[in-house]
Amino acid sequence: MKLGLNGLGHQVGTCRFGTDPKSSVLDLDCKAHDLDNLYVVDGSFLVSSAAVNPTLTIIAKALRVGDHLLERLRARTADSADEEAGPALARGSVSAELMMAR
Ligand SMILES: Cc1cc2nc3c(=O)[nH]c(=O)nc-3n(C[C@H](O)[C@H](O)[C@H](O)COP(=O)(O)OP(=O)(O)OC[C@H]3O[C@@H](n4cnc5c(N)ncnc54)[C@H](O)[C@@H]3O)c2cc1C
């Protein structure tokens, strides 16, 4: 089957995330299972290509991983993030709505 440009636009899955290191490269926070200081926040974490455009989901996941890193580095807590952004704009809730897999 010959693919047009549309068939090449949504490349995902080369570093897919999951709970099992045997079937995934990244954990659910997009950290490499085998390395403690490697995070991947591009579209490769998606496990498969959806029927819809992926960019908002990729952005939401990157923001979520950024929040995770701030908390991991003790630069900010989840509570202070909610206070800064307000409940409706809290990144965690936006990410949860946009995420297809988690
Ligand atoms: C023609 C086309 C149309 C699309 N239309 C839509 C759409 O309408 N809606 C939608 O949601 N998605 C669309 N997509 C898909 C969307 O563009 C991608 O899914 C999304 O951009 C992937 O984001 P990413 O961060 O994984 O990779 P990219 O956006 O490709 O970002 C990777 C970045 O890494 C840089 N880079 C690469 N190698 C290196 C290196 N060695 N050192 C430093 N930097 C490097 C690149 O220059 C690039 O800036 C489209 C894709 C294509 C090709």
The tally of helices reads: 3
Percent range for β-strand residues: under 5%
Bound molecules: flavin-adenine dinucleotide
Measure the end-to-end span: 33 Å
CATH superfamily: FAD/NAD(P)-binding domain
Radius of gyration: 15 Å
On the 0-100 scale, what is the average pLDDT?
A: 82
Look at the helices and sheets and give the structural class. Answer: mainly alpha
For the record, the count of structural domains works out to 1
Give the beta-strand count.
0
Low-confidence stretches: 92-102
The percentage helix is 25-40%
Task: Provide the CATH topology.
Answer: FAD/NAD(P)-binding domain
Q: Element order, helices and strands?
A: HHH
CATH C-level label: Alpha Beta
Overall spatial form: flat
Largest sheet: none
Please give the CATH architecture.
3-Layer(bba) Sandwich
Structure commentary:
With 102 residues, the protein is mainly alpha-helical. It has one domain (10-98): FAD/NAD(P)-binding domain (3-Layer(bba) Sandwich), CATH 3.50.50.60. Helices cover 33% and strands 0% of the residues. The chain has helices at 55-72, 78-85, 91-98. Helix 1 (55-72) runs antiparallel to helix 3 (91-98). The longest helix is centred in the middle third of the chain and has 18 residues, at 55-72. The radius of gyration is 15 Å and the shape is flat. Residues 92-102 have low confidence and may be disordered. The site of flavin-adenine dinucleotide has 9 residues, from helix 1.
